[in-house]
Design a protein that fits this description.
Helix content is 79%, strand content 5%. It is mainly alpha-helical. A hairpin with a 2-residue loop joins β1 and β2. The two termini are 15 Å apart.
């Protein structure tokens, strides 16, 4: 792996951690966040393995800093990991050149999948730790879907303006 690529991946992991800690508005069980931007950028720039690693390492560090290591830490790492894998696989499949529609499609689809996974993880976490209520886990699904889609649309629109300069920088 080239040093520039390795450093870029490390910076994206660090950006994810900072954005997840400080770039997130928490409203009960609903989060409005731009933390997924580095994962999306990494996946679109480098492919599925790097997108997966950015999501995996970033979410692990965010979990460690926020909650420490718990029984459910691996579960909470799954959504970010899946997002990086999905965006990266889609970008690779399209030769890393995605149209606006393709970018919107994969960012929105990954947001919907991540929302579904987060809901399952919330359910399991609540059952394991004994705080489960139907309203607490499933009561905010619709607002979380709407929030996720709107955020994904915005991040998808920004993606080309971030990936293209990074790609040019890495090619030097």
């Amino acid at each position: 792996m080239k040093p520039k690529r390795l450093v870029t991946i490390a910076m994206l992991v660090a950006m994810y951690v900072v954005l997840s800690l400080f770039g997130t508005i928490r409203l009960g069980s609903m989060n409005i966040s731009v933390a997924s931007l580095p994962i999306i950028v990494g996946g679109a720039l480098f492919g599925p393995i790097d997108g997966l690693l950015i999501g995996l390492l970033g979410s692990f560090m965010e979990q460690m800093l926020t909650y420490g290591i718990t029984v459910t830490t691996p579960l909470w790492m799954i959504p970010a990991t899946v997002r990086g894998l999905m965006v990266g696989a889609f970008a690779k499949h399209h030769g890393f050149e995605m149209s606006f529609k393709q970018t919107q499609f994969i960012t929105i689809l990954s947001a919907l999948v991540v929302t579904a996974i987060n809901t399952v993880v919330m359910y399991l976490d609540a059952k394991i730790y004994g705080y489960y209520t139907f309203a607490g886990v499933f009561g905010t699904v619709v607002p979380r879907i709407i929030s996720g889609v709107i955020t994904a649309f915005i991040l998808g629109a920004l993606l080309p303006y971030i990936v293209k300069p990074l790609r040019n920088y890495l090619a030097k």
